[in-house]
Design a protein that fits this description.
Strand content: 15-25%
Distance between the termini: 24 Å
Helix content: 25-40%
Largest sheet: 11 strands, mixed
Length: 438
Amino acid sequence: MTEPDEEAGMGRRGRAVAAVLLAASATLGVTGAPGAVGAVAAPAVDGGAGRQATAWLPRPTGPYPIGTTALRLTDAGREDPWKPGRAREVMVSLWYPTARPATGGERARYMEPAAGAHFGGDSGVGDLNYHVRPGSTDWSGILTHARRDAPARPGGPRPVVLYSPGLGDPRTWGTALVEDLASRGYVVVTVDHTYEASEVAFPDGELATSVFPAMLQQPGLDVGAVLRKSLAARVADTRFVLDELSGLRRAPGLPAGVGASLDLDRIGMVGHSAGGFTALQAMHDDPRIAAAVNLDGQLHFPGPDGRTGVFLPDFVEDGLDRPFLLMGTRESDSGSYHRQPGWNALWQHSTGWHADLTLEGSRHGSYTDAQSLLPLLARQGAVTPEVLAADVGDVRPDRAELATRSCVASFLDRWLRGHDDHLLDGPSDRFPELTYER
C-alpha cells in the first residue's frame, strides 16, 4: 500500500533513524516543557579524566532475585547483511530468576567498559540519540541488580520473552523493564542487532560498531531501503535466536538450570521503537511467538528521502491473529492509533486481541532506560534541561516506569500465563497517566 503524497515526517520518534542515518534531513526540534522533571541548573561534570556522572536503575518489583548471562551466537548459514563475507553473529543476554540476590562485586555491569566508552563517546548513541554530553557519563560504572552467571532458580520451566531495542540502541537500553520481568518469573532474552546497534562487545574483545554513521556519507542514500534491510535483518536475528534457544537446554557452559528453565511453548516479545516493529513483524512471520508488545514503534516505512511517503509492511496489511499491545507517547507523531497510518491499518485488519495505551506527558525515550537514567544525569550536568524534556517529557519518572512495567507484565501474564488482572480492560484509576484508546 502506498500513499506517496502523504507526509510521514520522522518526528522525535524518528530520531534513532535521523541521528544515525538521516542527520541532515530529519526533524529534530526540541520539544517539551522547560519545567520538565530534573530541569534544574546543575554543575557540569568533567567529561575528561576527572569525575564523571553516574546513575542507577530502579529496583525490580517482582519477588525473585535475578541472574544474567551473556552468549555469543553464530548463524553459520547466514551472511551478515552489513558485512558481506562474514557469518552473522549476535550477542544475547538471558535474565532469569535465581535463588539469592547479588552482593558486592557479583552485580553485572550495565555495559562492558569498551561498550560503555563508545556508547558515551562522540560517535555513540548516547550522544546521537539522547544528546548526553560525550565523555560525561560512566556508563560501565552503572550496575544492574542481576548476579552474573548465577544458577537458575528451581521451579521452571518459565515463559520466555524476547526483547529488541530501538534503532541504533544496544540491548542494554531496556534493562530496567527486562530486570523487572525477570524478577516476576520470566526468562528474558535481550538481542543486539550487530552493526546496527551503536556497539556490540564480543567476549574476545572485538567491538562491532554501527555501520550507519558511514552511510551518511553516501550520496543519494535511500533511507526507506536501508530501513527495510534493517527490519529484515532484525526479524532474521529474532528467528535465529528462537532456533538457538531450543539447543540451550543441552548446551554446556551455561549456568546451572538456565537451559532447562526455558518454556519454549510460551514465548512473547517486547520491543521499543524499531524493536516494537520487529516484535510485531516477527510474530506475524513466526508462529512460535504468541504475543507481542510495541513500545512506541512506527509501523510504516518512509520513501527514499526518509520524510515523505507511507509504505505499509505486510503484517500491517494482513493484520495479526494473536494478541498485541500498542503503547504510545505524546510525541507529535505518536499517541492514538487513529493518528498513525501503520497503527490504524493494523488495528482495522487484526483479529487477535489488541489494546492501545498512551502515556501522558511522555516522549519517545520514556519506554527506555532514558526515563530513569537521564533525570539523574541531568542533575549532574551531563544532560541539559531542554534535552531532558525532549527525551522523556514531563511525566514523573517513577510513575512512567511503574505504568510501563505494570502494563507489559499484565499483558504477558494474561497471554503467557493465563493470569488476568484486568488492568488492560479499560481506563484504570491506578494509572491516571494512561489514556486508553478505543
